[in-house]
Specification:
The structure holds two protein chains of two kinds. By secondary structure, chain A is mainly α. Chain A is built from two helices and no strands. Helix content of chain A is 60%, strand content 0%. Chain A is elongated. The relative contact order of chain A is 0.12. In chain B, 43% of the residues lie in helices and 23% in strands. Chain B starts with a helix and ends with a strand. The chains are: A mainly alpha, B alpha+beta. Chains A and B meet through helix 1 and helix 2 of A and helix 1, helix 3 and helix 4 of B.
């Protein structure tokens, strides 16, 4: 939704019935996992 | 004043979104500025990766829909376009749900037939066809009771094999009956919903799936056989109790 649809975190929260904090946390974790996969050295930063 | 932890969460979750508080923090924090640059680079890589077609999929030169389609990124979203997107998203979800509902009965029958054929092709099931001794009543009762199935006895088509087998996450009775058209495997399937009766021929077996109150009954034979009449007769003797 964010990358392809261009939704803001606030809009995603509204669409999915979540709090904005929950959306921020999930997106952060998802990117963090992707970052770790794509560049394992980045995990130390 | 925003602290680094909050700034990292905000940047890591939405690298392209700005806020007054975040801007104020970034002005004073070089490390978080660096983190935002890295995060935006990663975001761009994700965006580009999602524009690529999945491996092994050949798309038209300029795909217009689907994962491989050129992506419409919204630089400045207005409230109205946000609402339109919301409706578009809801419409897509509704259409997908409708498609699943419409296609599910056909898909479930086909998949069910394949699962049955696979089950008959493996392990102990192979020798079950050639049994001749009638299964003792106590053994048959136990197998049927375990799955919520009852069968009206018929001396003309005795049950010569009865085993409780795992199929699609449930224990089902796997029965073999000796009938006038030869040995038939009969599998009462409590809770399997079918819209109509379906014939199939697969993996050296032919069969019929008959919808029943409370589920379905599968009747299979080795080789090609017309089983519809006999399957209906067998189905009429079986009660399924979900």
């Amino acid at each position: 939704m964010q990358v392809l649809g261009g939704f803001t975190t606030n809009e995603i929260a509204t669409e999915l019935g979540l709090t904005q904090a929950a959306v921020l946390t999930r997106l952060f974790r998802a990117r963090d996992q992707l970052r770790a996969v794509l560049d394992p050295r980045a995990g130390d930063r | 004043m925003m602290i680094c932890e909050q700034a990292r969460l905000q940047i890591g979750a939405a690298p392209d979104e700005d806020s007054t508080e975040l801007d104020a923090h970034l002005t004073a924090c070089a490390e978080c500025r660096e983190f935002r640059i890295e995060s935006r680079t990663l975001n761009e890589r994700i965006r580009r990766a999602m524009q690529l077609p999945p491996p092994g999929v050949r798309l038209a030169a300029t795909p217009q829909v689907g994962i491989g389609a050129p992506m419409a990124v919204r630089p400045q979203a207005s409230k109205a376009s946000g609402t339109r997107r919301g409706w578009a998203l809801a419409a897509s979800v509704l259409l997908a749900a409708l498609a699943v509902l419409l296609l599910w009965p056909a898909q479930s029958g086909t998949a069910l037939a394949s699962d049955l054929v696979q089950h008959l092709s493996e392990g102990h099931a192979g020798s079950s066809w050639d049994n001749t001794e009638v299964v003792p009543e106590g053994v048959l009762d136990e197998v049927l009771r375990a799955s919520g199935v009852a069968i009206q006895a018929d001396a003309a088509s005795p049950i010569v094999y009865a085993h409780s087998c795992e199929l699609r996450g449930r224990f089902v009775p796997h029965l073999v009956m000796r009938t006038s058209v030869g040995p038939l495997t009969v599998v009462p399937l409590v809770g399997e919903a079918l819209a109509t009766a379906e014939r199939f021929s697969e993996g050296g077996f032919s069969g019929v799936l008959v919808p029943q109150p409370g589920g379905a009954v599968a009747v299979l034979a080795r080789g090609d056989a017309d089983l519809q009449a006999v399957a209906r007769a067998i189905g009429a003797r079986i009660q399924l109790r979900p």
